[in-house]
Here is the input.
Amino acid sequence: MNDNSTTAPPLDDTRQEALSISANHPQPPIQQASELIRDVHGHAVNALWDFWSGEVRAAVGDVVGATVAVGRAVLAAKAHIGHGNLDGLLGHPDFPLDDRAAQMFLRIARHPILSDETNYADLPHGLVGLYMLSGLDANVVEEGLRTGEIHSAMTLKDTKALCEAHRTQRDTPNASPESSV
Here is the structure.
């Protein structure tokens, strides 16, 4: 062995020396650049998420709007052809709805809160869910939208539970929200 060789200091001493050097000196430019890139990337990702969330939310609103538009078209057709003549239209080979679907669209279009375009983006986008909500009182739907109980990501299970809770409250004399649980 060569006696002129130097031994490395213990790892703990090396680590301590590195810590004291980094505490007394600014970060190396590459580390600063790396942190800046991470920060900018995080903001860019969040901006993309915000953008696409807005795009999808608008598209969901378009789906609800289209549902209401179908209902309004059926209402207009019904008004034009006269009461009792809708069956003939429903039986026409080019008419795209059966009686059940037409009734669902009609009820949604007649609901004052569900048919208000300012609420479209906050409503569930499925026909069945909207139809279920159309059976609720306008005040209940309005309150549900205000509190977030009704929202665009509602599942049918959520919608059924909400409608059932309000039906129980409506059908039970003197029911309070707590007693219907």
